[in-house]
Automatic annotation (TrEMBL), chain A:
Biased composition (Acidic residues): 328-338
InterPro entries, alphabetized: ARM-like, ARM-type_fold, ARM_PUB, Armadillo
Tree of life domain: Eukaryota
Stretch list, region Disordered: 312-338, 376-448
Protein name per its UniProtKB record: Armadillo repeat-containing protein 4
Species of origin: Lipotes vexillifer
Residue ranges constituting the U-box domain according to the UniProt record: 623-804
ARM repeats: 496-538, 537-579, 883-925
Automatic annotation (TrEMBL), chain B:
Annotated keywords: Calcium, Metal-binding, Repeat
The keyword Metal-binding is annotated on this UniProt entry: yes
Organism name: Lipotes vexillifer (Yangtze river dolphin)
PROSITE patterns the UniProt entry points to: EF_HAND_1, EF_HAND_2
Name by which UniProt lists this protein: EF-hand calcium-binding domain-containing protein 1 isoform X1
Superkingdom to which the source organism belongs: Eukaryota
Length: 1046, 212
């Protein structure tokens, strides 16, 4: 547990005393694992659960002494467990808020008592006890582990056999269990981490160190020399000056290969590339990038130096060999020992078995770590770096000391901040999601190669060594292979065909270029080939071809770009080489209208050119910067123009591009301005399902805008959407259509139209047996429709309430938000409310208040308001939820404004029942509400004021609010611009003014003048409340005067 | 040549040629006589371009280099096989050469590649035409091996009836599947660039020629 915690868990930056665990998914996962471990401990290992820790685990708990029951001696502020150790010390001792626990049994009991706050308790415990193992087992156990992890188990075993003490036996079992847990956590976090790592200073440094070791004079070395340009290393492991580090650059190295001039190389987070070299006069480095980006140093050097690549492959073997040896040794020893031990002592059979399991887990782990020093060019950069990191960590203290700069927490921090910066300067976040560069697998050298491999190899040979005629023949023959098949794709690459094909593009032999592009177009369906093409600099060449006078060339180039540009690096390459502008130019059919009618042999239609251009733009339009570039190049009017055609194969990429781009605000504006909506709506009526899907998606994106929604209605889009809703065959299309319906239904007029077209009935029909994305939109649309009384009636009559309530038990966050909203809307109608009540929907809603996501909590709380208003015996119902009222009151501690506002609204409704008001008062609603008073958020202010005015109705709450200083901030609310806030505040003040002290405070804070103003408001409730409040203040003044003169 | 005769010649050639308009035909005729030189027409003697003059044009204007192919192109132009290209052969030949439809070009190319004119492109003919198409690799013992293999794979791709030689039907089918194979055994059509230059130069200003 300890190792995983120190190494994998993400701690906040050190600095102020105790460090805290960051709330990251990784940490949460680790904590949950630990909780499961501890909770199940008492059942799985009852004997060990009684073991008394050497030192207690201490932390500050939020648990109330009253929560402890059986088996504990409870007093006002302390709790002692009845269980005690040999010396009579209790195993659990709580003196608010400190808690000390000395056994696993008690620990799991504490977690059991904590219920919902388990996670917090576990976190607090681990934060306070940075080395739990030392505390549990004693310092010596921990030390042993730190010094030599591999043999620790043995040492412990030795010790035990000498002692023969039963306590040590238990101790050892616990140690083993903890170790198992540790490994388990390691494995988990490894999975998490390996997903996110890219090049980092540690990896780069490692690479350079290893290269250094195998450099020098002589034939067998890989390089003549490799040197950093700067000796100074920053604390984060980078050597680049800080202003370059912002660009993600890590360090610069001067490399002298055997067979080439010295290279000056920049290692950056993005990858490795040649820079402008050192300028002679000042020794300054020209940071400008001069070559392609490679994913690591070795790949770049392989490319630049033949000798390096040759010698490297020999080194490979050696490195791997060494690696193997290193790993074999520790694993063999325990195996032998284990055998000996089994013979020696039957008593230890069980533990030995367990230990074997551990070593099994270990070897699995190490196996996964194995390729860390593997230099194969094809190992994925991400995977490699992560593995290498963990490898280092595994080896323990020694290595870490020599390499202080790469403690994982820090490295991660650097990575994070750098990533943030990078995000800001270059790409939108949406890109990184899709930037999944799949790992490469090189074909095993000795496996049986298919016959295609040899045939392709021969053809590539002719490509390389043939003149134009032979090249064309070879290209044509290559097309006869099944290029959709991965073996052929990889064969072309592995025999060096890609380089030749890309080279051919740089000639001016039209026929060769066409032939080459035809092949590239096919094989670029393979993700690995795409990456290789980008690595070989294929994109700039193809972008240049877009300028060619030959249309068929343009088409092929654009289509190939469309296939290649499926990941971030490619998008960027296309943009940086001016590809977006050229692609946009392809869309313009009109400019060619004057060309002669007859076409030479290799020409294509203008329409075809535009289609290919649109295809390429569609691929490229997944990044923010590219979307911008398309807009700036004038792509939107051209796309609008193309949208008027009726060719489906043209329309799909056009609408696809628009749909991608519509995620940007200024696109939506342009789409509106270019009257694109009209055409999108028209195409909804087409026959092609894919086209319909993209149109609906585009409408979904654009319909955030009020005017657009109106346009959709005016052009008859709602009818089309409604009719598509009733066709549920194609799930993707259905998701898009329901999405569009959802967004469109935000406008009232649209809801009316939808009702006319029987869309609500169709939507209700979609509530069952649909994928989640359909459900989210469907429920969202129903929620909007139910805001109208007619809509609610339809939903109820069609039996929509039941499936909605059923959906409340789901886990999808977006779905829960929409479902709660829809149920809230239904609950406004008493008949629907009866159904909801009957189905126990309120209880389900209530339990969603425990959902970890604040938006779900808030939405559930909002939905509860109409439920409480409209339910029969609402008070009784609310009381029937055990712990429900306490839960609601505790939500006032949230720090999410929306949650707070919604909970205030719920409390307003709950407090209408006197008995419930009494209960929530007991749960401390008054101080909690008072604490919120200092807010500037008008929604929160309004609902808070309403809640306060309701809560005033009980006992001495009025006085209590005054004591908690709620009056002064409330008076300030009167200066807000929102009349809703005014009304609620005036009512609250009116209630509070029943108490004399509050009147004084109000008067002191200048409430009278503000309230006088409100008396003149057209809002009657506001008038009345303001007047009542003033009357109370005045009455008090009169009374005092009277008292004074009498 | 007098104006009347020229007019008549232009008219008759225009009638027989679908790819050029009258003006273009006129320009080509003018070009032809410019190239032939000022030979006064005599009875019985055919006025025309001989093999060398024509090859020279192919080489200089259209950048062709392969002697054998150029010879074959000459033979394709020279319909009556008299070793001399007359003005009508010139105009007709160029109409296919520059503006031919795919069908015409296929016929023309097949004629060019069918070295012995027997209606088939045999393996030997292919070998002959491709023999210089591969760089000699130092590692290979027999440079002919590569060519032979290349011929085999070409045949495999194009010989649809598997009779070991290419008939016109084989060739036509292969080209229709993949237009790139039109000039499979060597460039015998103008590349787009030189074609453009030639047309721009020749059809530039018809009035200019009228005055000549």
């Amino acid at each position: 547990m300890g190792a995983a915690l120190t190494r994998s868990a993400q701690w906040t930056a050190a600095g102020h005393g105790a460090r805290a665990l960051e709330t990251t998914p990784l940490n949460e996962a680790i904590l949950k694992e630990i909780i499961v471990f501890v909770e199940s401990f008492i059942c799985k290992h009852p004997q060990e659960a009684d073991y008394v820790f050497v030192e207690p685990l201490e932390w500050k708990t939020r648990l109330d002494p009253s929560a402890f029951g059986l088996g504990h001696v409870v007093s006002e502020t302390t709790v002692k467990s009845e269980e005690a150790d040999k010396n009579g010390q209790p195993l659990l001792f709580l003196s608010v808020p400190e808690i000390k626990v000395r056994s696993f049994g008690q620990l799991s009991r504490v977690l059991y008592i904590a219920q919902n706050t388990k996670l917090e308790e576990a976190q607090a415990c681990i934060e306070a006890n940075r080395n739990p193992i030392a505390k549990i087992l004693g310092l010596d156990y921990n030390m042993i582990k730190e010094i030599n992890e591999d043999s620790s188990v043995l040492t412990i075993l030795d010790k035990i056999t000498k002692d023969g003490d039963p306590e040590s036996e238990i101790k050892m079992k616990i140690a083993l269990l903890l170790k198992q847990l540790d490994l388990h956590l390691h494995n988990r976090s490894l999975k998490n981490i390996s997903l996110e790592i890219r090049l980092n200073p540690g990896t780069v440094k490692n690479d350079i160190e290893l290269l250094k070791r195998s450099s020098g004079k002589g034939e067998k070395t890989v390089l003549e020399s490799i040197e950093y340009t700067s000796d100074y290393e920053f604390s984060n492991g980078c050597r680049a000056p800080p202003w370059r580090q912002i660009q993600g650059e890590i360090c610069y190295v001067l490399v002298k290969p055997h067979d080439a001039d010295a290279l000056c190389i920049t290692c950056s987070k993005e990858g490795v590339f040649l820079n402008g070299g050192k300028t002679d006069d000042e020794g300054e480095i020209n940071y400008e990038r001069k070559g392609e980006i490679y994913k690591d140093l070795v790949t770049l050097l392989r490319e630049k130096s033949a000798v390096f690549s040759e010698n490297m492959s020999q080194q490979d073997v050696r490195f791997n060999g060494e690696q193997q040896k290193e790993e074999d040794q520790p694993d063999e020893a325990p195996e032998e020992e284990a055998a000996a031990l089994r013979k020696a002592s039957a008593a230890f059979r069980r533990s030995a078995l367990e230990r074997k399991q551990i070593s099994l887990g270990r070897s699995q782990l190490t196996k996964r770590l194995e390729p860390s020093l593997n230099w194969k060019t094809t190992v994925d950069a991400k995977g490699k770096s992560s593995r290498r990191d963990t490898q280092e960590e595994k080896r323990g203290g020694r290595l870490e000391k020599s390499r202080p700069s790469t403690s994982p927490g820090k490295a991660q921090l650097i990575r994070k901040s750098a990533e943030k910066i990078e995000e800001i300067i270059s790409e939108s976040s949406s890109e990184s999601e899709e930037d999944e560069e799949p790992p490469d697998h090189l074909q095993e050298a000795n496996t049986d190669l298919p016959s295609e491999y040899w045939q392709i190899q021969k053809l590539v040979k002719y490509l390389k060594g043939g003149n134009q005629t032979a090249t064309v023949i070879a290209l044509c023959c290559m097309q006869d292979f099944n290029l959709a098949q991965e073996t052929c794709q990889l064969a072309i690459r592995d025999v060096g065909g890609l380089e030749v094909l890309i080279n051919l593009l740089e000639t001016d032999e039209v026929k060769c270029m066409i032939g080459s592009l035809k092949i590239l177009k096919e094989i670029s369906h393979n993700p690995q080939i795409r990456r290789n093409i980008v690595d070989l600099g294929g994109l700039p060449v193809m972008v240049n071809i877009l300028d060619s006078p030959h249309k068929s060339l343009k088409c092929l180039a654009a289509e190939t770009i469309a296939n290649v540009a499926k990941f971030r690096r490619a998008w960027r390459a296309v943009r940086r080489h001016g590809g977006i502008t050229k692609l946009v130019a392809l869309l313009d059919c009109r400019q060619h209208a004057t060309e002669p009618a007859e076409r030479s042999l290799y020409e294509a239609h203008d329409g075809e050119v535009a289609r290919c251009g649109a295809l390429a733009l569609w691929s490229c339009s997944k990044s923010y910067a590219n979307k911008e570039a398309i807009r700036r190049a004038g792509g939107i009017p051209l796309l609008a123009q193309l949208l008027k055609t009726s060719h489906e194969n043209m329309l799909i990429p056009v609408v696809g591009t628009l749909q991608e781009c519509a995620s940007e605000e200024n696109y939506r504006a342009a789409i509106k301005a270019e009257r694109i909506i009209e055409n999108l709506v028209k195409k909804l009526n087409s026959e092609n399902k894919q086209l319909q899907k993209h149109c609906a998606m585009a409408i979904y994106q654009c319909a955030e805008d009020e005017e657009t929604r109106e346009l959709v209605r005016l052009h008859g889009g709602l009818r089309a959407l409604a009719s598509l809703l009733s066709n549920a065959d194609n799930k993707e299309r259905l998701a898009a259509v329901t999405g569009a319906a959802w967004k469109c239904s935000t406008s009232k007029e649209n809801v009316t139209k939808f009702r006319e077209h029987k869309a609500i009935e169709a939507l209700v029909g979609l509530l069952t047996d649909q994928p989640e994305e359909v459900l989210v939109s469907t429920v969202g649309a129903l929620g909007e429709c139910c805001r109208e009384p007619e809509g609610r009636v339809t939903v109820r009559k069609r039996g929509g309430v039941q499936p909605l309530v059923d959906l409340l038990v789901g886990t999808n966050r977006a779905l829960l938000v929409n479902v709660t909203k829809a149920i809230g809307a239904c609950a406004v109608e008493p008949e629907s409310m009866m159904i909801i009540d009957h189905l126990d929907g309120v209880r389900l809603l209530w339990s969603l208040l425990k959902n970890p996501h604040p938006d779900v909590k808030a939405s559930a709380a909002w939905a509860l308001c109409p439920c409480i208003q409209n339910a029969k015996d609402a008070g009784e119902m609310v009381r029937s939820f055990v712990g429900g009222l306490e839960l609601v009151v505790n939500l006032l501690k949230s720090d999410n404004k929306e949650v707070l506002a919604s909970v205030c609204a719920a409390i307003t409704n709950i407090a209408k029942d006197q008995e419930n008001l009494a209960v929530i008062t007991d749960h401390g609603v008054v101080p909690l509400l008072s604490k919120l008073a200092n807010t500037n958020d008008d929604t929160l202010r309004r609902h808070l004021a309403e809640a306060i005015s309701r809560c005033c109705m009980w006992g001495r709450n009025r006085v209590a609010f005054g004591e908690h200083k709620v009056v002064a901030p409330l008076v300030r609310y009167l200066k807000s611009n929102d009349t809703n806030v005014h009304r609620a505040t005036a009512q609250a003040l009116y209630q509070l003014s029943e108490d004399a002290d509050n009147c004084i405070t109000m008067h002191e804070n200048g409430a009278v003048k503000l309230l006088l103003h409100m008396v003149g408001s057209p809002d009657q409730d506001l008038q009345e409340a303001a007047a009542g409040c003033i009357a109370n203040i005045r009455r008090l003044a009169l009374a005092t005067e009277k008292a004074r003169y009498n | 040549m007098n104006r009347k005769k020229l007019q008549k010649l232009t008219d008759s050639l225009t009638k027989n040629c679908k790819h050029f308009n009258k003006l273009e035909v006129k320009c080509l005729i003018n070009l032809f006589y410019n190239l032939v030189g000022d030979v006064t027409e005599r009875q019985g003697l055919v006025v025309g371009l001989d093999r060398n003059a024509f090859r020279n044009i192919l080489h200089v204007t259209f950048g062709m280099t392969d002697d054998m192919i150029m010879d074959r192109v000459f033979r394709a132009f020279d319909k009556d096989n008299d070793g001399c290209i007359t003005v009508s052969e010139w105009v007709y030949g160029l109409s296919v050469f520059l503006r031919g439809t795919l069908e015409e070009k296929m016929k023309y190319c097949f004629d060019v590649f069918d070295l012995n004119g027997d209606g088939f492109i045999s393996k030997e003919e292919m070998f002959h035409m491709l023999k210089n198409s591969l760089l000699k690799q130092p590692s290979e013992e027999d440079p002919g091996e590569g060519i032979k293999d290349l011929v085999e794979i070409t045949l495999k791709k194009m010989d649809h009836d598997h009779d070991g030689k290419l008939s016109f039907a084989d060739y036509e089918q292969a080209v229709r599947e993949e237009t790139l194979l039109l000039e499979a055994f060597g460039p015998c059509l103008p590349d787009p660039k030189s074609q453009k230059e030639f047309e721009a130069q020749v059809f530039k200003d018809p009035n200019e020629f009228n005055e000549v």
